[in-house]
């Protein structure tokens, strides 16, 4: 067990970027990328035994498809703290004997959504201090930590030090969060109720209707989505190409048979190929699914698409910040991995004949600069790690003693 306390031993700051899909975890001393833990449990419908975190992925990858998945975070918020506790325990036990987590001398650092109801904050306080018995707790929005990362990573591009707008498109939602002086401007934070989960569900429906019933095969469809979907920068053109069976767009996904192959894979469409495998042909669903991020009304969600949401968010901020925010937009989150995501945002913000909003969403007077983080899923965690190395980190930490004296108010001392 490592000696000292979190104040002097970087192994004792435990860092969780607590995504609704994956928890990215490590310590301040971790070198390289964090590890990930699937943030769900799976219950075997026949034996009722259950699997926790990555065990679920292992079972699913081996072809065990009769698992019911339960996610402890629902719509981004903690919904089932017992399940979350099980998954956190699984992570702590993975640290091994040598680096065994000693809660009494460790600080637990956690990312949460930018706006967190008191009742959820209270439950996190209970879990961290009462159930696990940590000595200290640092709670922050993921977006503030992403900023910490981006300010360093893009410093040569002269990203503004004070003022940025984070566009974070993850599993549950897509957020636009303006940041000033490292702190989110909460009243201006805006969100659309579309994230990776909804898009995977949508693709499941489309494939199940047109080809094979893949209901319940969430991870398989997720894999198809991650390999084959993209954000179109020429939507009408791409639709036309699909009608003409253009092989530039048509792709195939070979389904696993769980006998000779355990994993599916994508490949080019070849009309001449004779094939014994079960195949899904992906045409316009490759881009109509991610299109819902830009046109939510396509699936009857009456909210603004991403570029309009960004401008709505900036409009809620003081006018003096407007130019700075448009000049410092940082895109992150797992969905930012879709090819074309950042380009499409830029096209629609500026306005372009090839897309549906030719006039654009930014004022003519504002310059636009969009920064795409290099490894969108991990950058928030890296920002968190950088933050815990700052000289003033301790000022943002709530100790067990402070929590016992002040309760949940102790977390309101700072606004990250
Ligand atoms: N290469 C990819 N292409 C498309 N989508 C991807 C890719 N990689 C990851 N994703 C999607 O990103 C989503 C997860 O993103 P992220 O890790 O930012 O979310 P999270 O932090 O777990 O959740 P949240 O931010 O909602 O709390 C998943 O839906 C996943 O399918």
Automatic annotation (TrEMBL):
One family name in Pfam for this protein: Actin
Main location: cytoplasm
Coiled-coil residue windows: none
GO cellular component, as recorded: cytoplasm; nucleus
Catalytic activity: ATP + H2O = ADP + phosphate + H(+)
Intracellular or extracellular location(s): Cytoplasm
Tree of life domain: Eukaryota
Keyword field: Cytoplasm
Record-stated family: Belongs to the actin family. ARP6 subfamily.
Protein name: Actin-like protein ARP6
Organism: Euplotes crassus
Taxonomic classification: Eukaryota, Sar, Alveolata, Ciliophora, Intramacronucleata
